[in-house]
Amino acid sequence: MGQGGNDFNAIRISLASPEQIRLWSYGEVIKPETINYRTLRPEKDGLFCERIFGPTKDWECYCGKYKKIRHRGIICDRCGVEIARAKVRRERMGHIQLAAPVAHIWFSKGTPSRLGLMLDLSPKNLDRVLYFAQYLITKVDHELVADEVDRLQNGLDAELDRMEVRLLEKTEAIQTQLDAAADNDLTEERIAELQEELRQLNLAFDDEKEDISDEIQEQIDDMEGLAVGGLLTESRFRDLRDSCGEVFEAGMGAEAVLELLRGIDLDVMRDELQEEIRTTSGQRHKKAVKRLRVVEAFRKSENKPEWMIFTMLPVLPPELRPMVQLDGGRFATSDLNDLYRRVINRNNRLKRLIDLMAPEIIVRNEKRMLQEAVDALVDNGRRGRAVAGSHNHKLKSLSDLLRGKQGRFRQNLLGKRVDYSGRSVVIVGPELKLDECGLPRKMALELFKPFVMNKLVINGYAHNIKSAKRLAESERPEVWDILERVVKDRPVLLNRAPTLHRLGIQAFQPVLIEGSAIRLHPLVTTAFNADFDGDQMAVHVPLSKEAVWEAKRMMLSTNNMLAPSSGEPIVSPTLDMVLGCFYMTQALEGARGEGREFADIDDARLAYELGQLDLRALVKVRNDAASESGEDWLETTAGRIIFNDALPDELGYFNVVIDRRMLNEITSQAHDVLGNEGTAEALDNIKDMGFHYASKSGITIAISDVEVPTEKQNIIVNAESQIAELDDMYMDGLVTDDDRYQGTVNIWTEANNDLTAAVENNLNKYGGGSRSTMGNAGIGLYMMATSGAKGNIAQIKQMAGMRGLMSDPHGRIIERPIKSSFREGLSVLEYFISTHGARKGLTDTALRTADSGYMTRRLIDVAQELIILEEDCGTLEGLQIAVNPPPPPSHQERQLPPFIDRAKSRYAAEAFADPNTGEIIVERNELLTLEVLQRIEALAKVEDGEEGPEAGVVCVTVRSPIRCEAERGLCRMCYGLSLATWKPIMIGEAVGIIAAQSIGEPGTQLTMRTFHTGGIAGSDITSGLPRVNELFEARVPKGEAVLSQIDGTVTVNETTEGR
User: Fold this and answer.
1) pLDDT band for position 811 (50/70/90)?
2) CATH number at residue 434
3) What are phi and psi of 323, to 5 degrees?
4) Nearest CA-CA partner of 569 in 979, 107, 93
5) Which of 41-50, 77-86, 237-246, 372-381 has the lowest mean pLDDT?
6) How far apart are CA 197 and CA 167, in angstroms?
7) Do 558 and 677 meet the contact criterion of CB atoms below 8 Å apart?
8) Angle 461-462-463 from CA coordinates, rounded to 5°
9) For residue 636, which phi and psi values (nearest 5 degrees)?
10) 1005 and 934, same structural domain?
């Protein structure tokens, strides 16, 4: 940091030494006070002191002796404040001189604990030392230990000699008495007594000798067992201090740890650890490797291990932990001030206690409290309970300011709020072109104000910027004229949150409109995942020339027509547009003018415009350039002629009913043939036509259009009779409860499928209106579902057939289905059963969004360094793609996508030759074009046909990012084509991020659920997001244990038959 301002090229984070902290500091903070509540000025030597951190007012000292800029740099002789700008209070730091060393919690409590690894202590033991529960041996005088051991040994020998002399004297005395007793013919009893006394004496001597030897040996063992870094309990330390206090030193807290760290020689330690790694295995080897890693990190970074212990604490500049007065006269302060205040209070109290020579136990307790206060300041809540402020909220420590989504890195450095942006609700703009958006005039004026003001001055409407600003705010007619000119060649960026993939931000050419809502082209909604039910979008203005150029060239919506994840068009028409195209290209039997013949297309169009021909009547037109089929007459309708008029001639003539699938194909084809600009124009024509004919068709639906199939009654009666039979079998004990449940679910599933088929067969009969005007094709629901505009058979089945089986809150299928449809209305019980699913749907959506976002973030963390950095890595490796892979072993496994879809966009890793003729079809490092792939596919089919499906599988070896050997990132050849453009990928493209977004973006739509089929037979099926996580984490899937839904105790009894 230093005093050198903000001019730097790179940042390196390392440990700060006490000297460095002292260098940063402008003075020591001694008092815990912040500001004087009477004068509202900072207290001297406190946390906001002006002498340390700089003046609160520009160019003015605390006492007011010096004012104005001319005194800059002078230090006031009265109050000691330097005359400077007030903003120096954002840069100047202070320091607190700690009365006792304190461990940095990041290094003591982190995983792995760096302090623990350096000292070879377990985190638990380190914790005990730091928080004054155990002693740590810091020094052992081995020479003194050896001398002391010799002394003890000699003392033991001398003591044993003395005891032997005493024993000998006593033994001789008793022996004398025994001899006298034998001479004087004393009784046998007396002799026996003397002999027993002699025996007891010998026994007592042996016991005493053993006790003394053990005691001395214990002392010797204790002394020899003393080692630097060893741990001692309180009582053990006292005993050792009394017995051999001079041979060792031990301490508690960070002081003891600091002393040990100062004594570490990193080079020696590295050599010892390398030797240990060579000679050991298992757990010891692993630990030595971990320790060596930390030691090497310290050696390379030239940080010293003792810097992990604070002896001096830096104090953040006061403007970064401000204190502001609220309306009621009370103060709001940053949590850091409270945390610093606790540290200063405890530090001052500890200094006082040390000066007063207070008892050891009191000082020790105060040191522990100081350690806890610094822990809370650095990382509150990391150890034990977090320090709470008023209203019991956890105080935000220094680590909390950096950590997580709201921390300094992710909130302020990686993502910033920008100027020149606005947001508003989006509404549909069907009149716009694909690369346009409607921007409200007032919003545009605010966004482009600097450019408008500049033009007002240049064109002479205003003399200076101030008057130009006033003029712009007056909204005079000339301002709007200039705004029109300004926005003509300046695109804007539209963004819809959440931005899950790169198509979430696109550039558009603004068109000024009245009102307050942004207008969006209906075809770009898919990319933004937007709809018009109240969604909001943000607008951003690219300011510099480079930004404008980049927005036009790379971000314009016409350059983003394909999804980067699949290469499929993402802008094809939907909803009303599909319905309109479907309606106009349908053929209607018996329509006005049916069967007429026309000389050419223009004649047919004229007949339609004159009202002689119905839009959907089948007519014959003489075939000139309309079709390349070679037939003289083309059977078509006026609607199809009009539809094809809107498309460029290069696409040919589409003489079919145009549904959603067909529109997707047309879009793909247009992109291949016409490029971006041509496709945009064709799509705009299709859009206008689709909306026009959807309106003209007058198609509408009502609930009365839905008719319950006549077969429904029979299907339900049939299913109920099967279930009655199953229940009887269960009552007779022929099937288990699980089998009955499983059977019931299967019967209702089958009935549901039969009913769906019946609804599908009757679909074209739904809808009112006379058949003469609407034709046999039916209207409304049928047309919407068949064309792919909206709705599907599953939804219509619930309206017309029955809702079917539902799940309970545990995910288990309820065996009572909902037999009613929405058309008939649900009973109270059926409605109640439905609520489980509805509630689960809502909770799932909330959970899914968070989980999906987290998964995307992890994928991006993994893949973000994958960037295209070179042309060709030159690898000879590749992946084999089978043209005719063998079928999957079970019916449950999904079929692979077609060969062409798997191989297109790749380069060949090795040449591929025709197996029959030996002709090289594709060379190594040559792009596999569509023509080449079709030739290879045709070859495989011939092979199959001749020798049956068991013939050898035909494989093509392709370059793949998995096999890329580039030193950093990937190479262009291994990656292949960019799916967003179908052109070779550019160097510098962040393909890792694209891949992560392509997986993460659809993740939000995936379900969270695990289906419980119930019973023992079927295992639960994990699908959706949990399954994706399982795959990426490469975990072996584990089944969940079945939990009982009721309380109670289970007892297992064995019967006589052994069951």
Assistant:
1) confident
2) 2.40.40.20
3) -135, 120
4) 979
5) 237-246
6) 12
7) yes
8) 135
9) -150, -175
10) yes
CB 899 within 8 A of CB 937: yes
How many residues are listed for the chain in this entry? 1059
Q: How far apart are CA 913 and CA 186, in angstroms?
A: 126
Model pLDDT for residues 752-799, shown as the tens digit of each residue: 999 999 998 888 777 654 444 444 344 788 889 899 999 888 889 999
Pair (650, 799) in one structural domain: no
Q: Give the CA distances from residue 441 to residues 121, 423, 448, 487, 731, in Å, rounded to whole numbers and listed in that order.
A: 69, 13, 10, 11, 76
Mean pLDDT over 654-666 rounds to 95
Of the segments 427-441, 704-718, 770-784, which one has the largest average pLDDT value? 427-441
The whole-chain average pLDDT of the chain stands at: 89
In a domain, 518, yes or no: yes
Task: Say yes or no to pLDDT of 956 above 70.
Answer: yes
Overall domain count for the chain: 5
Find out whether 704 and 768 touch, Cβ atoms under 8 Å: yes
Distances (CA, A) of 233 to 693, 856, 1055: 90, 50, 57
Q: Which contacts (CB < 8 Å, 24+ apart) does range 281-287 have? A: none
User: Residue 324 has which token pair?
Assistant: 């502001």
The whole-angstrom separation of Cα 780 and Cα 800 is 14
- Residues 673, 601 within the same domain: yes
List Cβ neighbours of 116 (8 Å cut-off, separation of 6 or more). Answer: 108, 122, 123, 125, 126
In a shared domain, residues 552 and 623: no
**Residue bearing the bigger pLDDT, 947 or 671:** 671
Q: Are residues 503 and 646 in the same domain?
A: no
Per-residue pLDDT at 751 exceeds 70: yes
Place of tokens 């890792």: 992
The answer to whether 716 and 677 are in contact (CB under 8 A) is no
| pLDDT over 50 (residue 1013) | no
Q: Same domain, yes or no, for 665 and 784? A: no
Does 439 score more than 90 pLDDT?
A: yes
Domain-embedded: residue 482 = no
Do 692 and 708 lie in a common domain?
no
End of a domain among 697, 726, 752? Answer: 697
Q: What is the pLDDT of residue 679?
A: 96
Q: 492: closest CA among 508, 472, 475, 476?
A: 508
Q: Which residue range is the domain that position 748 belongs to? A: 703-804
Structure pTM? 0.78
Closest to 236 measured CA to CA, from 216, 218, 253, 214: 218
Task: Give the whole-angstrom CA distance, residue 291 versus residue 488.
Answer: 64
